[in-house]
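haha ok so turns out i had the wrong file open the whole time. this is the CORRECT one, sorry everyone. sequence first:
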Amino acid sequence: MTCGDGLETLLNDPRDHHDPYETTEAHVERLLGRALNSFDLPDATVERLESALAHSTALHSAHHSSSLRRTLYRHAYLLSDGSALTLWELVHNAGRDGAEQHELYAEEAEARLAASRLSAGPPPEWTVERSDGGPSGEDDDLAALGALFARPIPAQPRMYVPDDSADHARRVLRRAENADRPSERTARRLRIAFGHHITQVFGRNCPVEGGRDAGFSLYEHRFLLLDGSELSLWEVEHTATPDGRHMCEVYESEAAARRAMEARSRVR
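then structure:
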C-alpha cells in the first residue's frame, strides 16, 4: 500500500493483528486509546494528529530479560500540510500484575528516560552490605539509605534541548501529586523556558510498609530561561504508596526532594 509519489510503503503496527487496511485515523485512535499517559501528550501534538493522512510503524529498540520486557516503537505520520510528526511508544510489562502496558511520548529523549526507569532491580553498584559481611538489617538499610540520599550529584555535561521546554515544564508540574509542589511563581517563570536537560540523580529499591520493596528515583529537570537564568525542578518517582501505585512528586529544591524520599522510605 502506497500513498503519493515517492512515499515509502506504509506499515501497520507489527504487534497487532488488525485489518491490514486500517485507516490512519483508526490507528491514531487505537494508539491514543491504549496509552496510559495519552493525556500527558502536548495538546498541540494531539491536534496535529487529527490531520494525519498516512502512518508508518517501526521497531526502534527492545530489551528482554527473565523479569522485564520493554520495547520502543517509532510511529511516523504524514500530515495534511506536508509536514511529519513522530510519536514514541514504550511497551513494557513492569506493571504490578505483569500485564503489557503502553506509554506514548512526543520526544525520543523522554521515551528513553521512561524506559531507563523500568528497572528489573537495583543496579549492582547500589548493593548494600554490612561491613562485617553479614546480611543487612533494618537499621543498616536505613543508615545506608540515608548515606545514599546524601550522595552528591555526579558532574555531567549539561546539554539543553530546545524542544518545547515550556510545555515540558508544564507537564512535569501537572503530574505532581504532592501538596507542597512548586509555587505558581515558579510555574510562571518556566513559561519562558526554551531549553531543558534531564538527569537521573538517584535510583534504588527500598523496603517499606508490609515487607515489600518500593522503587525510588530522583530526576533533575533543569531549564534554561529566555533571560539567561537557570531553574530546576526535582521530580521524585516512587511506588511507596498503599497499593504500590506509581506516584510522582515535584519539588523546587533537591533538599526537599531528598527529605520526601527519606520520609517515604521510613514508612513501615
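The CA atoms of residues 171 and 258 lie 21 Å apart.
again sry for the mixup
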